[in-house]
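A note from the maintainers: we've had questions about how concatenated examples are separated. There is no special marker in the raw files; a new sequence line simply starts the next protein. For clarity in this README we add a label.
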Amino acid sequence: MTHNKKAFYHRPKTNQSRSPMIRWTFVTLGWVFFILGIIGILLPVMPTAPFILLAAGCWARSSRRFHFWLINHKYFGKYVRDWEENHAVPLYAKWLATIMMAISTAMLFYRLPADMTWAAWLVALVCSGVAVYLFRLPNAK
């Protein structure tokens, strides 16, 4: 005797705007951020997670269909759900982000001319702040 198991889908938490113009703006921004996140998978100097989370936030305010699709996505869904439910980030993602920021900042110090070193220090300061913020968040399970 076999029985069908229904797939468990997470229901999106949405806060949709009533304005069609605002909804279309958020839908468009969601796709821009999602595409940037996909590019981040291919380019090591570009992050993926922040863009996917931004896409989820935009779609939560504009499109139940796209938000539902993303929170149940095979690869990105768990990360989006962890963020939406607990503001949690996996420990390996925190370390990966911090290492990538450190490498990118080091490359700035190496590549920028001496009179532009201030920009590298500014980036280093921002990246340090982001790393501190990341490690203060709970770890996703």
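[label: protein 2]
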Amino acid sequence: MNTPAYVYDKNRILGNIQKLKNAFPQFAILYSIKANPYPPLVHCIASQNIGADAASKNEVLLARAEGTAPDQIYYSGPGKTGIDLTETIDHCVLIADSFHELELINRIAEERGIVQEAGIRINPNFTMNGTPGTPGKFGIDEELCTKDAFAAYPAVRITGIHVHVQSQELDWEKIARYYENVFSLAVRIQQEIGHPLTFINFGSGIGVPYQEADASVNLAALGKRAAELVTIYRPQISAKLLIESGRFLVCEAGTYITEVLDIKRSRGKTYLIVAGGLNGFFRPAISAFAGDGHAAAEPLFTARDAWRITSDATTPETEVVDIVGNLCTASDILAENIRLPRAAVGDRITFTHAGSYACTLSPQLFGSQKKPEEVLLSPDILSH
């Protein structure tokens, strides 16, 4: 295998899919394509009857090309244009992110002589922590979602809601309270629009453990509480229930592999110069920039040291090194002052937690270097 490269473990992805299906049998699962849009990986996930959370027109078209049915693709990204909507309207479930988007959908529907079903993304008056809602770029503020407001779009029938307030949460009780708030919001929206919703998208939120002190989300407890909420709200809510997977399916299934190109010792420091630094895997570089205590800024930055770094060097001798890339900038740093086995040119360095927000988040055009390869790996198949 050439380096730099991203290797994705197909069996681990399939196992993670089964974990979510087991925990939430009354919910449909959507794969958040923005986490990793590598086509063979998207196809693998779609083959397991997992729908798609699409954040752009191109993600809608990718999901269709890789086998996802139109009624399983939910297009919810902000800033949709008339062209975006026209080219996707027959290939997905549209979710309007603003009143302007409702206006665009209404115009397209009138031109077609139809009433177009669509969902709305809502910026709710609550957060994952239970505090009041805040201003935001996503969705329509909850208090603005009224019968009179929607009456301005007679060619659009509101059929669903989408709510998402936070990624990467590890506290199952916070997620459960959030689910309850979304159910309550759905009841109110039904009253406003005067007919039952056909879908409720609860968004993402289920995180993965990055650091040693992190504990995985208690899926058994969260699933049990979700089932209780379904029982409580089913007399009022008949809608299809959706959960976005966020990074859960792919993050821990991905490994970034690079190679030591040179070793430089300068005034007491040792630098391992590797292929594909910040232009190969940007998230470690951002972590190197961020100071201790820096607040999470998903998906660019989760936490310091949010991956395990290993080397295939076999020598028992170790040394403290900086891992830096081969770009012509001093900011091309993947790790500082870490202890690894003493390296030689040609040794390979691996980073865990590279399955989500990794390859496509990296500024691969910077320096005109070779782009990383991607591989979907299973015991008997290599898919390039």
